[in-house]
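Students often ask why we bother encoding 3D structure as a string. The short answer is that it lets us treat folding as translation between two languages. Here is a chain of 154 residues written in the first language.
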Amino acid sequence: MDEEKARDLIREHARHRADVLRDITSETATDGLKYLTLIHLAGMGGTLSFIGATKTANAWMVAAFCSFFIGAFAVGASYLLRYWHFGQLLSAFNNDVTTMYTQPDRMAFSEVSRRDVERSSGGFDSALACALLAFALFACGGILGFYGVYHYAQ
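And here it is in the second language, the structure alphabet:
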């Protein structure tokens, strides 16, 4: 096998592996957000059911409900921020490609690629921060709910 063919095979394998890993990452993030939504809604339902069944709304249970509610909102914010971020990346990339084809002396493909990598890497991931906040709020809601039931039982 000549060197050029070997490079092409390596490039194709790397491209395929990157596509697979990207798809797995995207699917895992989406499934994680679905799970967070489900557990927050279940927490809200369980808290409201307890409050309704006992006809008491102690501060612990109200705080637990608020924690689950804010957590569900944080999950929604995470979806929205992901959508907005990827929409911005697509729009900027399309603008650069349009400039490259309409004004070839102004921008080459290497510049389009460089700008895309620069936009895509680094920075604060606000969607991840919202997802982590939602996870922490679920833990807080569970703890607050436990204390609410504990204080009711005494």
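Translate back mentally: The radius of gyration is 24 Å. Keep this in mind for the problem set.
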